Structures are given as C-alpha cells and as structure tokens.
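Moderator note: this is an archived Q&A kept for reference. The question asked for a predicted structure of one protein chain; the sequence and the answer are reproduced below.
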Amino acid sequence: MGVGLGIDIFDVQPDFRTLIRDHRDGFDFLEVYSRGDWEHTDEPFSEIPADVPRTYHHEGLDPVGPSLCPDDTIAGCAKNQKLLNPPWTVEELAVRHIDGRYTDFFFPAILNADCVKATVANLRELAKRIPGPLLPENAPYEFVVGDMHLFDFMNEVAHGAECGLVLDLGHVWSYQLCVGKGDQPDDQISRLDLSRIIEVHLAGARIEDYEGGRIYRDLHGAGPIPEESLFLLRQLLGKLPNLKAITIEVEDASEAVAVAQARQVREIVQQIRPTWLEGVHVA
C-alpha cells in the first residue's frame, strides 16, 4: 500500500478532507482512526472517496485483557470495518477499558505466559467475529511488568493466533527506554520474527526525563519523528519480507506537516528499498 497517513476521523487538524482535496499526491493511503467510536462514523467515513485506499485502526477490543471484550464493542468494530472495507484492521496490544470505564491511556500487555495465553484466545475469537484480518500492534510502554522480552511476547502471540503484526517503531523505543536499552533502539531485534510484520508505524514523540531514566510520550503529528524511530526504520526496511504499509500517525499536525513527514519517510524508503515502492502511487 505504500506510505500513508494515520488520521483521526474526528480531528479538526489535519482535516482528512483537506488532505484528500489538496494533498492527494502526498500519501498513498489513509489509516483511519475513530477513537473506538462506531455510533458516529457513518457520515465521516462516507466522505472518503472510494479511490482512496484505507486501513482501519480500531481501539477498545482490549485483546490483552483477561477475557474477551463486550459483544457491542466487537459489533461496533465490525460495523466500521464493513463501512471502510480495509484490507486489515489494527488494534493495540493493550487494554483501554477497566470495569467498563474508558481510561485516558493504554495499559500495555503484561509480558508473561498468562497474558500470551489470554491474548491468543481473545485474538482467535475476534477473528471469528469480525471481517478481515486483525493485526495487533505493540503498545507504548512507560514501565514494564512481566518476565518476558517484548519481542518474545509478540512472537508467541503472532504464532499462537496465526496473525501478522504491526510494528510501531516509537513504541519499540519506549520499551527499550524502560529496560535500560534506550541508547540501542534495535537491541535484541533479531529475536523478533520479522516475517510477521505487515505494517510499520511512525509518529512524533517527546522524551521526558525523570529521576532514574527517560519516558517516551506519543505526540503523533504534534511533534517530530524521533531520530531513534527513523534509525529503526533504516535498520529494518530491508529485513521485512512481508511489509505492505508504512503509516505515519499525524493526528494534530497541520496538513503541510503531515505530508512533509510522509515525504521524509518516503525519501528513506527510496534510499534503502526503492523497489518496495514499485507499483504504488508515488507523487
């Protein structure tokens, strides 16, 4: 699918309509995020022309929770999938609801065997009930709980659920910061089954210092893409045999900044793996 932009369908900035109307040559596809909302998506989804390829980023299925999420959440995701008809749907390996209440941040997967077992069971059941593949994405970490390495956890989930993965490069770095490898963003990357990676995410971020370490904070379009994330992109581009999409999450960016970040990423791809863009619309 090429190099695309991840947008929030309800954001004022960037306005996806303006991106499509005035900057269509700046991106190959849109990854559509709707904050897990399925009750107010009919109209905005209908405003995406049929000739604009799209993927879908859901939120709220909580696949790493101890049990399956509520039926209405699954039905809502399925409704949005049918409206958008994406080739796949992305969902964070995190929990966003606790006792039915929406939290203001992700609780990422606990990295242990019990969480692997629950996640695989949830993903297998979700695969029966929603249309199209569901690709879990590594979530951002501010602290790590569990005795497994993140990459081992992702491998066991992907193999157990027989699914592909979305690799968020900033979220990889967030984990490395937590385990004392912040200066080596690609530490232990050889442990990850790179053949499972279907999509890569990049986003703007801020690093906050605190006594004893640093914490990664997603800013998406409200900040620059960290060099560490771009380093990971350069390191991995030639090692992802099944890569289909690179998404830059640009929520809160101006339209000009959004397409500039897409251009920045496209230039890296053209330098390192130019044949990957063959057959994809290129500005």
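Archived answer notes: The chain has a mean pLDDT of 95.
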